[in-house]
Amino acid sequence: MTNEVLENMMTRRTIRRFREEQISEEELQAVLDAGMYAPSAGGRQGVLFVVSQNREINEKLGRIKRNNSTVKMSTDTVYISKEQPSIADDPNIFNAFYDAPTVVTLFVPKNFLFAPYDASAAAENMLLAAHSIGLGGCYIGSAWESFADPYGQDVLREWNIRTDYFAALHVLLGYPKNEQAPMAKARKEGRIIRVTDRTEGGMKHNGYDK
Prior knowledge:
By secondary structure, the chain is α+β, with helices and mostly antiparallel strands. Helix content is about 30%, strand content about 20%. The strands form 2 sheets. It has a 4-stranded antiparallel β-sheet with strand order 1-2-4-3.
């Protein structure tokens, strides 16, 4: 079975190389709308979306994020991407935002248990929407690291971010620099367990997928 939605999910790739030109307002709004309509626990809609298209701010926050990341550098056999290296793959990448022209930071309440999951659901919606209209996107976790110095704290105050919220993640948006998207990795087998019914002897299932 296939349709446009499933096809979009299966062809989306993480993009870390962007062209310099800014995305259009129409494209940005479409991606934000997708994030706003993501599921949220209890329908709270607690995620705040802060859009930065300020090149200087994005550059500085991206460098702060890079400097505060404790990712283990990749090896020849364990890596994120050969085609579009991440900061874990290439120590010479100094901007964790990969020079994306638009950076959307998702802030969530500190005192709500399910807030980070709400942000993740919104980010996935945004990435799928971006791909469907020809944009490239990248998910950056542990966003609070981007604000972990005096400059970052000044930015939070400039953006009027409430002190009871924290930065959960970033979504990077832009036009892909390369026409050829990264190749999809083969799907690993053995990750689906199917439970069919109960029997007198206990739970009966069909085992792992083949």
